Hints:
The structure holds 3 protein chains of 3 kinds.
Chain A: H1 4-16, E1 28-35, H2 42-60, E2 83-90, H3 95-108, E3 113-116, H4 120-133, E4 137-139, E5 155-157, H5 162-177, E6 186-192, H6 195-207, E7 215-222, H7 230-239, E8 243-247, H8 250-262, E9 269-273, H9 280-286, E10 294-297, H10 308-321, H11 327-346, H12 351-359, E11 389-394, E12 397-402
Parallel strand pairs in A: 1-2, 1-3, 3-4, 4-5, 6-7, 6-8, 8-9, 9-10
Antiparallel strand pairs in A: 10-11, 11-12
Helix pairs in contact in A: 2-11, 3-4, 5-6, 8-9, 11-12
Chain B: H1 2-14, H2 19-44, H3 53-70, H4 74-96, H5 101-121, E1 131-132, H6 150-172, H7 174-184, H8 186-191, H9 196-222, E2 224-225, H10 227-230, H11 233-246, H12 252-272, H13 279-294, H14 300-314
Helix pairs in contact in B: 2-6, 2-9, 2-11, 2-12, 3-4, 3-9, 4-9, 6-7, 7-9, 11-12, 12-13
Chain C: H1 3-34, H2 41-59, H3 63-84, H4 94-116, E1 131-134, E2 137-140, H5 141-163, H6 165-175, H7 177-182, H8 187-209, H9 219-234, H10 239-259, H11 267-279
Helix pairs in contact in C: 1-5, 1-8, 1-9, 1-10, 2-3, 2-4, 2-8, 2-9, 3-8, 5-6, 5-8, 6-8, 9-10
Amino acid sequence: MFTGNPAGRFVVLFCSVFWFGLAHSADEVRVGALYPLSGQVAKSGEDTVNAIRLAVDIINNKYPDLGVPFAATEGLPALGNAKITLLIADHQGSPETGAAEAERLIVQQKAVALIGAFHSSVAATSSQVAERMGVPYISGESEASTLTERGFKWFFRTTPSSRTQARDFFTFLRELNKGSKDQVRTIAVVHENTLWGQEFAKSVEGYLPEFSDFKLVADISYQQGTADVTSEVQRLIAAKPDVVFHASYDAEAILFARTYKQYKFSPRGVMAIGAAFGSSAFRQALGPDANFYLIREHWSRDLASKNRVVAQVAKLYRDRFGKDMDGTPARAFSAMMTLADAINRAGSADPKKIRDALAATNLAPDKLIMPWTGIRFDQTGQNDLTRGIFVQTLDGAPRMVWPFDQAAAKLVWPRPAGR
Amino acid sequence: MAALLGILLVLPMALSDRPFELRMMVVIFLYAMLGHGWNILGGYAGQISVGHGLFFGLGAYTSTMLSLKLGLNPWFGMAAGGAAAAAAGVLVGIPCFRLKGHYFVIATLVVAESAFQLFAAWDWVGGAMGLQLPVQEQGLLNLQFHRNKVPYYYIALGMLAAVTALVWWLERSRFGYILRALRDDEEAARSLGFSPALYKLLAMALSAGIVGVGGVFFAQYVLFIDPFSVLALSFSVVIALIPILGGAGTVAGPMLGAIVLVPISEYSRVLFSGTGRNVDLLIYGFLIMLISVYRPDGLAGLFRARRERRAYVSG
Amino acid sequence: MSGDLLVQLLLSGIGMGFIFALIAIGLTLIYGVMNVVNFAHGEFLMLSMYASYLAFATWGADPIVTLPFVAALMFVFGLLVYYLLVRRVMQGSMNSQIFATFGLMVFLQAAAQFIMGADYFAVRGGLLSGVLEVGSLILPAPQLAAVVGASTATGVLYWLVFRTATGRSLRAASQDRQAASTLGINVDRMYALAWGIGAACVGIAGSLLSNFYPVFPRVGAIFVLIAYVAVALGGFGSIHGALVAGVIIGLLQVLAGFFISSQLKFVPVYLLYLIVVLVRPRGLFGRL
């Protein structure tokens, strides 16, 4: 048998290196944030957490010129200017780790609310822990439709689900077809094969009976992290769709765009869910070829023309983190602000009171940096006041082109060939 | 030994308000058990597999599907999951045991990766969306515990103890002796009248079966599985790394490996990952290199060397 | 389907195949000389892609211009890895070598993220970013360059291994370490050389790849599995085996992706590997 003593010493050693929870005073509110900070989507996780850091900084410190709630004061006024302490945990994209971290944040770090988790699979398991422990959980960017279909009492989501977003693709095309000679009829869906891409493709298929004026001519599911997309592009060329719907992460977005160009695949439009086709990495990688991609976004700098706060927050983000804000950080920022609003209205750091305040949330559009008509949660905990926009990269900058009546720039359609 | 077991038996009381450490102990037990499973094939029989995630995933998927589609009890699922994994091990082993060295390593790699991709594309088992086990009344019968996770601790500890005893017995048995003979000199073993194919398949079945049972436990613990968390190649590599770190072909190896590797990875993640700069993995990778350089035969060698030295001194 | 499309598919597949082959050649060389599989090979690729990108971003130097420098840099890096790490685990078993290079892989990936962040970077408008059109067929320039690069690399390696004195020593060291030592060959130096050349090969691959693939900390993982399979399929240690296997894999994945399923396009590749090694347990051209 193995020598018990040295091994025993190991156990004792590692069990004694316990995690000492920080001593914390009453004038702070501890919020746990669960995000992927290593692994495949570390970059998106980093951008998202940065937005939450910015939101907390605005809440905790004085920003007299800024038009967002809690900017003018230090801390949360209804809690005696208590400050929010952000506890950031890395779940590495693993549902098991996410659940474990949620439990650690709640029990050992005394978090009174959780925010997360980017990956829908991690949001699913970690919010289950929160539900069981009676701690409110808010998600600003986990999009799987199923998350709000579980009958949870403690789960709230400010972002629209991917199913809701998929609908905008069809609405957009229908409006585009109205009164146009150049009708869009055929669609191809290209998506990566993780939860996010698969759910998007399923949602698109689900809308086809309702939007029967469109026909799906190709459904291409590719492996996330693929080395080569030649065969995918050749299938698209063979299927000749009018429009391509895309659900891809950054690396493959760049690879697809380059391969489209190489093989001169030029549909009338490429419409993408998620920020990849409009990200700064994408624009930097493709230069002028990044133009004319359409991205179903949640947020755009162009919203600043109606709402000056948008420009202020975007500038703060840019100055602090050296890159442009896009839809996902903007949504995380809004989720954090929503949570802060609820904690303030609860007037207490008691999870139950925060939960009830969240359920009663009713934020007006002028308090937000989003194009939404407000934030209000329905019975399932889903914000039912979201609205989507489409942005198109024009002259290297993302411009808001839809809804047509609020467009900041005119849509270029169809995409000029050879681009 | 008894003292250690005693400590482990009462440890949950000390961890009552420390779910993180409690869960870490569960992970250590589970990984040590998976390491034992790998060790039977990789350590004793000398067949290095970097595809054991396949058996873990098969176990998890088998019990979960049986529960979702047929409403079968998870204990039955555990038996079925272990059996399915063992059967898969034999199926993989029959052709692959004809391969030697790195050809075998790569074969296990591609089989596991193919399974990962097939499961991610296969709608009937949830595809990339994975499978959620319905929350049932907690208790030993349903193998689900919600508020208090301590029962998982004891179940994992019990499984580890059982598997450790099995490997301990195996090491001393004729079967274990034949496996080591095969590893060290296959031709010699063959000339002594042992069929290499048969014994390797037996080792594979046992190895895969143990890992499969571990997969079932994991599914019941997390209540959610998807290809990325139970079939990913990176997980296969971890299953192999743990016994290699601890010392392949020793009873203590998998346990030592898990006791060292899991806390390093967990604490460095918790302490450093908030920076978003991957400092945790930087440390983790560096330590692995350090151990490989200074303890090329695993940590178990550390104790053996000391024991031998002690024996030498006292003798 | 038209004949043109089929020809286009075949050409694209072969072109990608040469890229896979170029990555695999360095791996097989190291294995051939010293029976070690470098699990950090993908991270070597990642480092050379970062080197190409950084030269481009800093000095506007085209990856094709900096290619020799990146290869030289990677040569030195290969030597370093050998002397600092691999040499120290050579007395151990195959296990400890797997373990050491796995640790290196995790470390390099983390180091890349530590220094460069998790962002995606890409070379834009390099000399090799265009395409060559022949009638209605399209041949992307990076793939053409890979055809040239992989063929040249194979040729040069063959010349080096089979026609030079160094090559004789390399072969001697790979066949019988003890005998080579008694013949006065510095085996240690031969091993280091194999790591240097192997890393330089993957440096060339990274330079070419940076023309169309973005670089990020985990980019190596995307290509390395393919490289392992190419090396094993071609036969461990066989340079032309890696070349042929790379091309076969490139072709098969394009055809499978087009005719069968995109997300499962590598499953036929894996199946082919299993079938081949069951018939020929040493791969297409390997030795046992």
